Amino acid sequence: MKRVLNQYKITALSVLLTAILLAVVRVAVLAKNVEISAESPETHYLIRVGTATVVFAIISAIVVAVIIAWCISMRSHRVSVFEPLVPGTSVELSVYPSTLLFASALCGFMLLSSGIYFVYLFMTDSSVSLFVFILAVLMILASSGYLYSSFIAKGKTTPSYSVWFKIAPVFMAIYWLMYEFVEQNKYAINSSAVYHIMGLVCLMLFLTYDASNVRGAVRTVRYFATALLSVFLLIIDALPHMLLSCFWMLKLDMFVLLDAIAIVFALYAFSKIFTAVDISSEPDVSEKNSDTL
């Protein structure tokens, strides 16, 4: 296989840096335009529709359009992404991309530790709902694949049941999206939900496509689009909210951990694209792998 093409690295880094830059800008936009309810400051806040918020939304839409256009332009490319959990194979540490290894380990640690913490809160705090407990259990299950591939699988033959390691994060993402959608609908004046929900939708789709990647070759447009949009949307939503909660004006609660998890998943999606390998010049051994759509 060829080494990673510069265009994949450049694109992944460009999207990541753009997302971080716009997230910093959004901190200032939110700080100047947020109105918090005196009655329920932890849940009720409104972002005023002004020049800054409209301009930010337009810029974000342009970035999304550029990402989609670039992904469509890649439809004729055949791309392979590193996949450590292929049943019947073994992976040595020396061939595991360090960027992906770090992101996988971080995903596993964040999901496991946050899941355990949410379970603890459910057992000790009566205000924590059963829905949070279910999310916590799914997080713990989802962490298994990332931890296995990062710390256990080196040099060992991957068992056939490893496919469940890939499916668990999909179930978690689906439930997380449903949970957040219901929660957001409870508070109609929370007007920043669009970035949040769109980011989770892209994450769910990306993890679904990632789970279907059992031999490395991916359907380029779908995989790249959902991965890069996850990076962009999750970061511009989660990073400002986490910073404002930790250091500024929004209430700090346990759900800040979900922002941290969203950022970690964004880094995981980034690492998948950053370490992608072009295989367009190699013989296409199956029609299925040549389908880039």
Report on this model:
- The protein is globular.
- Strand 1 (34-36) and strand 2 form a beta hairpin.
- Helix 2 packs antiparallel against helix 7 (220-247) and helix 3 packs antiparallel against helix 4 (130-152).
- It has helices at 6-33, 51-73, 98-124, 130-152, 163-186, 193-211, 220-247, 256-274, 287-290; strands at residues 34-36, 45-47, 79-80, 217-218, 277-278.
- With 293 residues, it is mainly alpha-helical.
- The strands form two sheets. A three-stranded antiparallel sheet has the order 4-3-5, with no helix packed on it. A two-stranded antiparallel sheet has the order 1-2.
**Structural class computed from helices and strand pairing:** mainly alpha
Number of strands: 5
Instruction: Round the Cα radius of gyration to an integer and report it.
Output: 20 Å
Instruction: Please tell me what the overall shape is.
Output: globular
